[in-house]
Amino acid sequence: MYENNTLYVSDLDGTLLNDSSILSPVTERTLNELIADGALFTIATARTPATAVDLMRNVNTNIPFIVMAGCALWDNGRRDYISARTICPNHMARILGIFERQGSHPFVYHRRGNKIVVEHVSEMTDAELDFIRPRILSPYKCLETVEGSELNIDTSDVMLIFGMGNFDHLRAIADDIDREGIPCSYNCYHDIFDKGLGFIDIYMEGTTKALAIEQVKAATGAERVVVFGDNLNDIPMMRAADWSVAVENAYSEVKLAASEVIGLNTDDAVVKWIKEDRFRLKSPQIHSSKIQSPSKL
């Protein structure tokens, strides 16, 4: 029943990508074989198209990419956004006011056509420079710096406010957002390697990968959704999916939320699971429409 009506959605970093943050040759080849056989596959990532497009350049999927943690859908054929959720200018002004009171300056991501213009004050820390420099080499993202501390808040095209620095400092900003009751969706989290370093992503209220997946499901006519993830921001889509799969290297909370735990991201575990699942769905001996793990059959 579900052979070509299952939508497979995978996170990138720590899930579909290996530890070098690229798709392995095995994963690329297997994905293309699956897609050629009729599989519906796409990604759901916190990355912008500036890096997601290049990472997926050898994969022949025509399903919209879910980018920026569900903030936008990207048509990789047309190289343009299908839709994008933007932060209310009033809410943005209040959030930027909190950053200013805390002595911090975030990156502000504006949508301009099919490009993201990242705005930041001209003075940046070494960590901020190291972060942004490799990310503005794409035709889909550029940097604009502003002298002084005044960012452009009179705009309705802001998709993301992104801050980085000391985790406790950023956590204080998140607490102030909660205290003031500013409508938005945010994720405040530690760096994987340096627990003192933190990041905060702030989007329009209600932004989740799960909501974006529902849009893609409707567009493709899929009847069943299977998702793959490793990080905390993958939990909402796991709860909304028909079947959810965590890789072995996922956070413990993600494993608890998942229907099943498979191998490591470094072992091409996602594409192996999809291949087994499609084999099972083609088997005439299986008539149940219940979602089950291929490894348990």
Structure summarized in a few sentences:
By secondary structure, the protein is α/β, with parallel strands linked by helices. It contains ten helices and 14 strands. Strand 12, helix 8 and strand 13 form a beta-alpha-beta unit.
Descriptive overview:
- 32% of the residues lie in helices and 25% in strands.
- With 297 residues, the protein is an alpha/beta fold.
- It folds into 2 domains: 6-84 and 207-296, Rossmann fold; 89-203, Hypothetical Protein, Haloacid Dehalogenase-like Hydrolase, Chain: A, domain 2 (2-Layer Sandwich), CATH 3.30.1240.10.
- The strands form 3 sheets. It has a 6-stranded mixed β-sheet with strand order 8-7-6-9-11-10. It has a 5-stranded parallel β-sheet with strand order 2-1-12-13-14, with helices on both faces. A 3-stranded antiparallel β-sheet has the order 3-4-5, with helices on one face.
- β12, α8 (235-240) and β13 (243-246) form a beta-alpha-beta unit.
- α2 packs parallel to α10 (269-282).
- The protein is globular and about 65 Å long.
- InterPro entries: HAD-like_sf, HAD-SF_hydro_IIB, HAD_sf.
Name its key features.
297 residues, alpha/beta, Rossmann fold, Hypothetical Protein, Haloacid Dehalogenase-like Hydrolase, Chain: A, domain 2, 2 domains, six-stranded mixed β-sheet, five-stranded parallel β-sheet, 10 helices, 32% helix, globular
